[in-house]
């Protein structure tokens, strides 16, 4: 710590000499070569936490790094590349606009390849509804059933329950452009959606909600996806006028440029990290339903899946 | 409601007009509404204000590392704060677990006595037992950094404001606005200028807390007895001697009180800055909120309350004790304490204490309540939503903005004069100009419903508490804890019980705002002079007559102050409710810093919230200045 | 020889644009009317007087009479509106801030009604304050302060704090603080009105003793006539900011300038204040008198035993010159007639 303060003080002098401080001045430089701290952004859904749990566990236990996990929303995590507070995003959902800003324009971040997970966002109803109203899964029929989904928050229309306001979503635009008689209500978190979904299944209450894969809940309970107008390349270019379904996202990893350039073993591990939706769902299930901490869940998974993670460990470490 | 509330405004001499005007106003407003009501078209997603703010953001983004404003100004501020935070952190964590516990205990003993030292010892050990040591230290680091800055900046400004008339006059409105600004609204502009992380968090906290430092310091300097200053002047003191030898030493206890208040405010803000990547207990709470894990939030909330209590006791104790009264004994004790701290710091004691967590029982309890009270909570939510929120929201959102501005201005003129009318009217017009009319009116509806419920229940509890000492005694710790808990924490139980809804925000707002209401009502009633009560009792009043005809009218000042304070707090909380489905302006703010394309709208929403705060504050304050017996 | 303090045509007007009042027809208006017309309050109106070296000069008036304002104008704690003030012949109103500070630091000290002690300093450091701000070294100022505390009878209390002392003791500290800078002039602004009557009497005795010992020029403000009569060599009566009468205690009691002053002194026991010169009569032609005369300056009360014991009138002398005679007939009205003008 003291060393860091001294370094910063030296920095201030250099800066004064050559004039002006850049926005990231004074922040810790990412660990180059030496086994320092890796700053992992943790976005607010359990699938991401699973990635972070396993990667963090391997970094600490197998490579000897210190891992600092930061609970951040997606957009804020990207800002972290600029300040140096974030080294890695472990599960990125598209975000073409952010990539353009931070990778192409500011050049503070780089892509580090796919995670292997296939991300699919969509609208869902509990299975019992699909059974009872077979045509409900077509968006064109949603208006017919709008009154079923009325709640105190839906202003007399049907309610479409969304998650955290920071999630990737076109739902407000979709409801408008598809002229659906619905109001989007943001529950604030993944946990709130899951709770509502479980309740809807258990108590047979109507619920239309935003959800996504990978997601452990699909392994436990059945939900039916609503078909929206099919996705075509570029149909979501203007986020305010979207009228098509969500694409299948190949989720990927993003690292800060400095971290990538240092090419430490930590970076290499993150670059090598790749697994399936089932892998992630398993860890998510440990985290959510078995009451395990991130480390416990990661340890259990690591012990049982050596063949999966062994190739991630960089050669010679 | 309007008619009864405005009645006491009348000046003697124009009683008839005074009675008729409010009625006319209400009638005119109703007629105006019926004639001009709109269809509540949704706000545009692309208002001029949003575009402007987005352009500002884009400019800042593009020039952050090139524009001299940033290279030589903003970025240096950030760097400086970063250095400060690092220095404080090396200081505090350099002591280690045992060292820091010992240091805080010793500090408490020296500054505030051994009882406080025991509280400090127990409190800081509790962080270890709760397994939240690192997080607690992080929160402490940010709080201490922000408070250091607030004192460094606020005390000189406070002195200046007290001594130089125009500085004080110029600062007053600025501080007013800073104090009614809901915490949440700061965050987006902060990240725009200072990005995310600890420096931005410390600066946001500084902005939130520094008005208290300035205000109380100013008060302390102003309260220095004129006679003492005169005596020192008569002996030939220079201006500087007066300041350093008379004014500052005499104002010292008040300035320490200012530090105390600053710490309390800083602590509550630091928690919220977790949203812009500040480390510490706030992260645990954000995390708990995201997982709807009431138990985890309970542990973290408990740690925050404990920290607040310890810091409060130490500073309050220091304020009570006189400096300059340090006999040799105290110095010796201080030296001994220092040695003890050094020794303890060198001992290899880690923070790995046996874990105590309340998470499981709290979650069990919450689960049980969710399961068994579901019908009742659901009924309550739907009743309030359909019976109060929806009708009010409909009326407000279908009112054309110009009619609202007119009504607000007229009402302002009635309760507080032309100035109030002007400010409130401009604020209302400003909201319309920002292009967030519908959302602002939805937020306003929720705020109004919450404040009515809060006042109703708060006044009842206050009356009960003023009339029954046992009840007051039982209520006190509840109120204390409720007031030190960061606002954030209240969202959790509310969201667990009521799901993602406006009613959740109503409940959280109520829990946040009712303690001061109860306190002010209780004190207002108890402050009614015993002789008056005695006289009324001697005249044969029943206890209800006493309450309605004597005590409540006499405690009106306290009630109006309670309404004023309550409404600002409720607004802050309702906005936070945007995090959990309450929608409207709060949601816009959250979306603003979580979705890139919504930035402009989010920032506009932040300003709209501030304007709404000014509007509500002016109207209720107009009230209380116009007639409150103070 | 010049007087120690001279005040000439001093005005202090509070309110908006106060300078327009002085020297215009507004100046002649009564207070209430002036206030109604201009919003200004004339606290001190055209006051002139002089205080001689070593004299105890008392300014007496009811609350609101402007006496506290007047005393503050002397060292410009309140800036006068117009008029001249001289201290040792030096015009105070022309002093620059530095010179004014020198005046306050070395030549004129003040004792206040509410003491004005610094609660965060020990008694010793309070007394040493004036020396400290002059830059006197710590040892020296503590030595001087200790001496002053001994002088006012507070030795042993050096390390205590003001709030630990009684009101009377606190005012002794205030007195010691004023004495510590060894000023030529001491100003007292109602120093004893906040004290209990018994303690007040002690403190008055203290002031008389100190005056005798250190021989300063004292200007003393009070609303208490008894205090004024006890202490004052001369008394100035102030009413609504105007000087009504300046004179010795005898002058005031024996020869009040107007009904206001007369009403004021009505309850004063004449025999305690007046001297024989106020009651003596011319001897009747060929009247036989006692051999032993009494000086004209003898207070009536002191003359009672002799006058009542004498068979013949007693001659009254001023020096060697016989100025009149006095017998029981003159004495009695002065003793009983509190409510009537004493015949001259």
Task: Please render the helix and strand layout as text.
The complex is a heterotrimer of chains A (317), B (630) and C (344).
Chain A: H1 2-18, E1 37-42, H2 46-61, E2 66-71, H3 74-83, E3 88-92, H4 96-105, E4 109-126, H5 127-132, E5 158-162, H6 171-177, E6 182-186, H7 190-202, E7 208-213, H8 217-220, E8 223-225, E9 248-256, H9 257-262, H10 265-272, H11 277-289, H12 294-304, H13 306-309
Parallel strand pairs in A: 1-2, 1-3, 5-6, 5-7
Antiparallel strand pairs in A: 3-9, 4-7, 4-8, 4-9
Helix pairs in contact in A: 2-11, 2-12, 11-12
Chain B: H1 2-6, H2 15-36, H3 48-63, H4 68-94, H5 96-112, H6 114-129, H7 133-163, H8 165-180, H9 183-194, H10 198-222, H11 226-234, H12 239-272, H13 281-291, H14 294-320, H15 328-346, H16 359-372, H17 374-398, H18 401-416, H19 418-433, H20 437-467, H21 469-484, H22 491-498, H23 502-526, H24 530-538, H25 543-554, H26 556-576, H27 584-592, H28 599-627
Helix pairs in contact in B: 2-18, 3-28, 4-7, 4-10, 5-6, 5-14, 5-15, 6-14, 7-8, 7-10, 7-12, 7-13, 8-10, 9-10, 9-28, 10-12, 12-14, 13-14, 14-16, 17-20, 18-19, 18-28, 19-28, 20-21, 20-23, 20-26, 21-23, 22-23, 23-26, 24-25, 26-28, 27-28
Chain C: E1 5-14, H1 31-38, E2 41-51, E3 56-60, H2 67-74, E4 82-87, E5 90-91, H3 97-107, E6 108-111, H4 123-134, H5 138-151, H6 167-180, E7 185-189, H7 197-214, E8 217-222, H8 225-231, E9 234-239, E10 242-247, H9 249-254, H10 259-265, H11 270-273, E11 294-295, H12 300-309, E12 314-318, E13 321-326, H13 328-336
Helix pairs in contact in C: 4-5, 4-6, 5-6, 12-13
Keywords (chain A): Signal
Signal peptide (chain A): 1-19
Pfam family, one (chain A): OpuAC
């Amino acid at each position: 710590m003291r060393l860091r303060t001294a370094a910063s003080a030296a920095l201030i002098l250099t800066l004064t000499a050559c004039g002006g401080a850049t926005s990231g001045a004074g922040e810790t430089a990412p660990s180059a070569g030496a086994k320092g701290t890796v700053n992992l952004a943790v976005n607010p859904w359990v699938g991401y936490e699973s990635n972070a749990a396993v990667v963090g566990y391997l970094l600490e236990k197998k490579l000897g790094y210190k891992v600092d996990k930061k609970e951040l929303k997606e957009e804020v995590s990207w800002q972290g590349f600029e300040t140096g507070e974030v080294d890695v995003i472990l599960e990125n959902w598209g975000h073409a606009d952010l990539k353009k800003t931070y990778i192409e324009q500011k050049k503070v971040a780089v892509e580090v390849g796919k995670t292997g997970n296939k991300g699919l966002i969509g609208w869902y109803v509990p299975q019992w509804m699909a059974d009872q109203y077979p045509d409900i899964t077509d968006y064109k029929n949603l208006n017919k059933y709008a009154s079923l989904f009325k709640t105190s928050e839906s202003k007399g229309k049907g309610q479409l329950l969304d998650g955290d306001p920071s999630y990737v979503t076109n739902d407000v635009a979709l409801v408008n452009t598809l002229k659906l008689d619905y109001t989007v209500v943001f529950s604030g978190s993944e946990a709130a959606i899951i709770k509502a979904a479980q309740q809807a299944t258990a108590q047979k209450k109507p619920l239309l909600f935003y959800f996504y894969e990978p997601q452990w809940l699909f392994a436990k309970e059945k939900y039916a996806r609503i078909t929206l107008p099919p996705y075509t390349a570029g149909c979501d270019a203007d986020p305010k006028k979207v009228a098509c379904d969500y694409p299948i996202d190949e989720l990927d990893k993003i690292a800060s440029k400095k971290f990538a350039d240092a090419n430490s073993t930590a970076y290499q591990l993150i670059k090598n990290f790749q697994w399936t939706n089932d892998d992630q769902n398993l860890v998510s299930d440990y985290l959510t339903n078995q009451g395990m901490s991130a480390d416990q869940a990661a340890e259990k998974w690591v012990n049982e899946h050596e063949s999966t993670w062994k190739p991630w460990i960089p050669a010679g470490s | 409601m309007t008619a009864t509330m405005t009645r006491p405004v009348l000046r003697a001499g124009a009683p008839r007009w005074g009675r008729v005007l409010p009625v006319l106003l209400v009638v005119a407003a109703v007629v105006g509404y019926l004639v001009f009501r709109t269809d509540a078209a949704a706000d545009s997603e692309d208002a001029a204000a949003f575009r402007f703010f987005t352009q500002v953001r884009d400019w800042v983004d593009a020039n952050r590392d090139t524009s001299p404003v940033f290279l030589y100004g903003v970025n240096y501020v950030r760097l400086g704060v970063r250095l400060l935070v690092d220095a404080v952190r090396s200081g505090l964590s350099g002591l280690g677990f045992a060292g820091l516990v010992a240091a805080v205990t010793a500090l408490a003993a020296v500054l505030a006595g051994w009882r406080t030292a025991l509280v400090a010892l127990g409190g800081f050990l509790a962080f270890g037992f709760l397994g939240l040591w690192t997080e607690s230290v992080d929160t402490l680091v940010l709080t201490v950094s922000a408070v250091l800055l607030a004192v460094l900046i606020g005390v000189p400004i406070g002195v200046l404001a007290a001594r130089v008339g125009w500085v004080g006059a110029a600062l007053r409105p600025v501080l007013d606005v800073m104090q009614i600004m809901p915490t949440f609204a700061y965050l987006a502009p902060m990240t725009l200028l200072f990005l995310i992380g600890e420096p931005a968090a410390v600066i946001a906290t500084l902005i939130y807390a520094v008005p208290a430092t300035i205000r109380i310091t100013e008060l302390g300097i102003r309260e220095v007895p004129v006679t003492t200053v005169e005596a020192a002047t008569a002996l030939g003191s220079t201006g500087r001697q007066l300041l350093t030898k008379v004014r500052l030493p005499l104002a010292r206890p008040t300035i320490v009180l200012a530090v105390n208040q600053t710490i309390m405010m800083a602590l509550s803000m630091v928690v919220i800055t977790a949203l812009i990547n500040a480390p510490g207990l706030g992260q645990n709470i954000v995390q708990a909120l995201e997982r709807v894990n009431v138990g985890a939030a309970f542990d973290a909330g408990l740690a925050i309350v404990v920290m607040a209590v310890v810091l409060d006791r130490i500073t309050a104790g220091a304020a009570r004790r006189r400096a300059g009264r340090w006999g040799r004994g105290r110095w010796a004790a201080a030296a001994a304490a220092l040695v003890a701290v050094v020794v303890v710091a060198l001992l290899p004691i880690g923070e790995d204490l046996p874990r105590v967590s309340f998470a499981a029982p709290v979650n069990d309890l919450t689960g049980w309540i969710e399961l068994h009270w579901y019908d009742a909570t659901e009924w309550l939510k739907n009743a309030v939503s359909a019976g109060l929120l929806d009708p009010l929201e409909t009326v407000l959102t279908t009112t054309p903005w110009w009619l609202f501005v007119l009504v607000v201005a007229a009402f302002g003129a009635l309760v507080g004069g032309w100035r109030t009318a002007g400010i409130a009217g401009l604020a209302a017009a400003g909201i319309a100009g920002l292009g967030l009319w519908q959302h602002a009116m939805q937020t306003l509806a929720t705020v109004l419903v919450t404040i009515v419920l809060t006042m109703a229940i708060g006044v009842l509890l206050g009356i009960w508490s003023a009339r029954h000492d046992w009840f007051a005694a039982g209520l006190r710790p509840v109120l204390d804890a409720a007031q030190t808990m960061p606002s954030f924490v209240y969202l959790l139980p509310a969201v667990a019980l009521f799901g993602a809804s406006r009613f959740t925000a109503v409940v959280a707002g109520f829990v946040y705002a009712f303690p001061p209401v109860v306190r002010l009502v209780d004190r207002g009633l108890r402050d009614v002079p015993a002789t008056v009560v005695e006289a009324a009792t001697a005249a044969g009043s029943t206890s209800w007559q006493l309450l309605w005809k004597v005590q409540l009218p006499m405690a009106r000042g306290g009630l109006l102050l309670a309404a004023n304070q309550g409404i600002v707090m409720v607004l802050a909380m309702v906005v936070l409710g945007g995090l959990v489905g309450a929608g409207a302006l709060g949601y816009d703010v959250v979306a603003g810093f979580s979705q890139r394309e919504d930035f402009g709208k989010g920032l506009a929403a932040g300003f709209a919230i501030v304007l709404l705060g000014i509007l509500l504050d002016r109207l209720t304050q107009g009230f209380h200045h116009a007639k409150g017996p103070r | 020889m010049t007087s120690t303090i001279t005040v000439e045509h001093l005005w202090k007007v509070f309110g908006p644009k106060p300078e327009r009042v002085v020297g215009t027809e507004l100046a002649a208006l009564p207070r209430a009317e002036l206030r109604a017309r201009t919003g200004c309050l004339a606290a001190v109106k055209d006051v002139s007087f002089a205080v001689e070296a070593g004299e105890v000069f008392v300014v007496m008036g009811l609350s609101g009479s402007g006496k506290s304002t007047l005393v503050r104008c002397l060292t410009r704690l309140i800036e006068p509106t117009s008029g001249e003030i001289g201290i040792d012949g030096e015009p105070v109103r022309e002093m620059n801030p530095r010179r004014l500070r020198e005046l306050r630091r070395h030549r004129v000290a003040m004792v206040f009604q509410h003491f004005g002690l610094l609660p965060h300093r020990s008694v010793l450091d309070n007394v040493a304050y004036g020396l400290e701000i002059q830059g006197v070294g710590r040892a020296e100022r503590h030595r001087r302060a200790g001496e002053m505390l001994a002088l006012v009878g507070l030795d042993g209390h050096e390390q205590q704090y003001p709030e630990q002392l009684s009101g009377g003791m606190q005012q002794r500290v205030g007195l010691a603080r004023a004495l510590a800078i060894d000023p030529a002039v001491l100003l007292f602004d109602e120093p004893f009105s906040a004290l209990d009557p018994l303690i007040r009497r002690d403190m008055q005795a203290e002031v008389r003793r100190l005056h005798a010992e250190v021989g300063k020029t004292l200007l003393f403000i009070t609303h208490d006539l008894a205090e004024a009569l006890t202490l004052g060599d001369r008394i100035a009566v102030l009413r609504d900011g105007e000087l009504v009468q300046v004179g010795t205690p005898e002058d005031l009691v024996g020869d009040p300038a107007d009904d206001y002053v007369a009403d004021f002194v009505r309850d004063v026991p004449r025999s305690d204040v007046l001297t024989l010169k106020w009651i003596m009569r011319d001897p009747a032609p060929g009247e036989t008198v006692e051999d032993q005369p009494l000086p004209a300056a003898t207070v009536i009360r002191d003359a009672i035993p002799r006058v009542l014991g004498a068979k013949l009138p007693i001659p009254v002398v001023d020096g060697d010159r016989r100025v009149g005679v006095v017998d029981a007939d003159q004495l009695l009205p002065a003793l009983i007639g509190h409510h009537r003008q004493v015949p001259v």
